[in-house]
Write a structure and sequence with these properties.
This protein is mainly beta. The strands form 3 sheets. It has a 26-stranded antiparallel β-barrel. Strands 1, 2, 3, 4, 5, 6, 7, 8, 9, 10, 11, 12 and 13 form a 13-stranded antiparallel β-sheet that branches. A two-stranded antiparallel ribbon has the order 32-33.
Length: 742
């Protein structure tokens, strides 16, 4: 008969905190047919007070301190359940025994075994011939015997561990001893053999692995690959969890053609500051015979509310360092200089004041003297602005940009002018905006003063320049519902008028000024230069038209087409170089850009700059992608810029079965008729492991090809052996997500 019930029985069961979930290979859901344990049913667990135990069985008998339950025994504690055929409990000794098969559900942990013995007062217990499962990882295994050391720690003898589904042991870890510590979130296996398809492939006397995402000192996953500049390349990082707010990673990098390079990364975090120090050192490079090193420091400090100090500095031993090791040491081989800067910034709602000190190290030794950047010792900038209120139905705002900077040069480039520059640019604007029409006139005056050390160059040492400027921006927005009622089309004409008078600036040296690249957005800007050394003169009128198609339900933009052009009423005489001829074209390039989305899979973007007077295309860019799901993606890109470049870029991610994906990229120069980069590889994902192999051929800054092979092996919940595949594919294939579940 049933039920017999005993309440307030002092019985404490095996307890293990649930483990945090671990990602599957490459993220995302497990492949089809990979249900972890489809025949295991997890019962609902009861929430009970800590001192309450409930026993249900076909028969329950109590004699003094002895309790015996028989026949379909179920013992409940807080979020725990023990199933057995026979349960004997000695209340005086706090000892419980089970006979025959026993199942313990404890949160996300399931233990199945025989001949259970639990010392309840001490939160310990023993089982033999165990099958266990951790649902939240998920992971499972077997053991000859198991011991509960305390509520959070279990030890298994002659144990197995895997994250593969039941009856599908693609890999497993066989260990003489296995410890699972829920308190620290780590598992430790001793004298362990890694088996793949039941074939032993590796042995280790000690390995620890995560049960959740908490940090812990120990070896991280090695990375390996091959490269034309390094040969076979293996990195073995060791992580040191110094404190909750400090850690360090030490990485020996073994390169067959170079030697052993030692890397150190130290990170720190405090309530008021944080930062990172990186150091790489290669003694006696086998190729060059020299010591090679790189050091970098990033630091952020919050000194007071609104006051912040930022430091970003780096130094390298030689100009070839990043060509040889750049892919692994933060920078690419095309680095020309390393800037070192410190910023002290004070930010308030209406203004931001920044003081900067900036130096640099020339990495590209072939960089011409005239192209080397200046030091800023120091640079002080002020950005301020405020809404001043309403006037004549519109809003009035004022803005102020100011700068004081001292430009200096290093000794090797001491023949160029240096000096002090002060730049002040106040502006007043009024905006009338009803939602369907807007008008915004604005006007300002830019004042710049120089105190120069010409260093032998002719010209005045004190220069003053004052340039007024004015503009009026305006536009209309028309809307109409399309026939289907689910789309809305807009028509948005826009006019922009601007005027900046000519000022002779031939005596002003160029410290930090360059010409902006023309684009559709530049149609509505007065300034065609970056920096303050040149203020471009103009008298212009921009006419532009944009039309959009919007989804009325979601507001998402489904299509957009914009076209615009500037009409110049006079020549533009200010040039970056005084010897350059004036710009005499009466029209800018015709700027066209558009975007089209079809459904959720197709996305296309394009832009064209067309010179009507010369009847040629200054720039053309096209990008089309098709991606109906995360496993299928095709990207096509085309880019052409006058006589400088013409390239195509095709990348593909495509399934070759339920579990195999092919990846590839082909970046090709039509002008030089050569490959710029080739990628080809595959990724395989099973129920509990994944494999990626990618071959790469790329053209470096010396116009030489570098060939490399990269590997990644992931054993879900145990380890990842990475050769830089994630970053390679994420950077090479637009829209590729290496970990879609993060």
């Amino acid at each position: 008969m049933r039920p017999a019930r005993a309440a307030a029985v002092s019985l404490v069961l095996v307890a293990t905190a649930p483990a945090a979930g671990a990602e599957t290979a490459f993220g995302g859901d497990r492949p089809a047919g990979c249900e972890f344990a489809p025949d295991t049913v997890w019962p609902a667990l009861r929430e009970l007070p800590p001192d309450v135990r409930e026993i249900e069985a076909d028969h329950v008998r109590r004699e003094g301190d002895q309790v015996r339950a028989e026949g379909d025994v179920q013992l409940y504690a807080d979020r725990q359940r023990l199933d057995a055929e026979v349960l004997d409990y000695d209340r005086a000794r706090g000892l419980a025994r089970t006979e025959g098969a026993v199942r313990l559900f404890d949160g996300d942990l399931l233990l199945q075994g025989e001949d259970g013995r639990f010392q309840l007062d001490e939160d310990t217990g023993e089982l033999s011939r165990i099958d266990y499962m951790v649902r939240s990882v998920p992971a499972r295994g077997q053991a000859g015997a198991g011991t509960q050391l305390d509520p959070d720690r279990h030890r298994f003898e002659q144990a197995q561990y895997t994250t593969c589904p039941v009856n599908r042991d693609s890999w497993r870890l066989d260990a003489a001893r296995l410890d699972l510590d829920q308190e620290s979130g780590r598992g430790v296996a001793r004298h362990a053999v890694l088996r793949v398809r039941n074939i032993p492939v590796a042995y280790t006397p000690y390995i620890d692995f995560p049960l959740d995402d908490r940090r812990k000192s120990g070896f991280l996953l090695p990375s390996f690959g091959t490269g034309g500049r390094t040969g076979a390349d293996l990195s073995l990082p060791w992580y040191w969890n110094i404190a909750p707010n400090y850690d360090a990673t030490f990485t020996p990098r073994i390169m067959a053609d170079r030697g052993i390079k030692l890397g150190t990364e130290f990170r720190y975090l405090q309530p008021a500051h944080e930062g990172q120090v990186d150091f790489r050192y290669l003694p006696d490079d086998r190729e060059t015979g020299e010591d090679r090193q790189f050091v970098a420091w990033e630091h952020r400090t919050r000194i007071a509310p609104g006051l912040r100090l930022d430091i970003d500095a780096a130094e390298v031993s030689d100009g070839e360092y990043f060509r040889d090791f750049g892919s692994a040491d933060r920078y690419s081989g095309s680095v020309r200089d390393l800037r070192r800067r410190a910023d002290l910034t004070w930010s308030q709602p209406r203004y931001r004041l920044r003081t900067r000190v900036e130096d640099y190290q020339i990495v590209d030794t072939e960089l011409a003297d005239r192209r080397e950047p200046y030091q800023r010792l120091p640079q002080i900038t002020l950005e301020a602005g405020e809404y001043a209120g309403q006037w004549a139905g519109g809003g009035v705002t004022w803005d102020l940009d100011a700068e004081l900077v001292r430009f200096a040069r290093q000794e090797r480039a001491s023949d160029r002018p240096t000096g002090l520059r002060f730049d002040l640019d106040p502006e007043l604007a009024w905006r009338f905006d009803t939602g369907g029409i807007f008008v915004e006139p604005r006007a300002g005056v830019r004042y710049t003063a120089y105190e120069l050390d010409r260093r032998g160059e002719p010209g005045p040492e004190s220069i003053r320049r004052t340039v007024p400027h004015a503009a009026v921006d305006s536009g209309l927005i028309f809307e109409r519902d399309l026939a289907d009622g689910e789309r809305l089309q807009t028509l948005e004409p826009r006019l922009f008028y601007g005027y900046v008078p000519y000022r002779d600036q031939g005596d002003i040296p160029v410290f930090d000024t360059g010409e902006r690249e023309f684009s559709f957005d530049n149609l509505f800007s007065l300034q065609r230069f970056t920096g303050a050394d040149r203020v471009g003169d103009t008298h212009q009128l921009t006419a532009a038209l944009t039309s959009r198609i919007l989804d009325t339900t979601t507001g998402q933009e489904r299509a957009r087409l914009s076209v615009g052009e500037i009409r110049y009423f006079r020549d533009r005489r200010v040039r970056r170089s005084p010897s350059a001829p004036a710009l005499e074209d009466r029209h800018s390039d015709l700027a066209v850009e558009g975007r089209l989305r079809i459904g959720d899979a197709w996305d296309g973007r394009g832009s064209v700059l067309y010179n009507r007077e010369h009847e040629d295309t200054s720039l053309a860019a096209l990008g089309v992608s098709w991606s109906p799901d995360e496993r299928r993606r095709i990207n096509f890109g085309y880019r052409q810029r006058a006589d400088r470049l013409e390239q195509t870029d095709v990348s593909v991610l495509w399934p070759a079965g339920d579990r195999v994906d092919l990846v590839g990229r082909w970046n090709y120069s039509l002008r030089s008729e050569r490959d710029l980069e080739l990628l080809a590889g595959l990724q395989y994902r099973s129920c509990c492991y994944g494999l990626r192999v990618v071959a790469r051929r790329s053209l470096d800054s010396d116009q030489r090809y570098d060939n490399s092979i990269h590997f990644q092996i992931t054993l879900d919940g145990l380890a990842r052996f990475d050769g830089g595949v994630d970053s390679l594919l994420s950077e090479g294939i637009a829209g590729y997500d290496a970990h879609p579940d993060r």
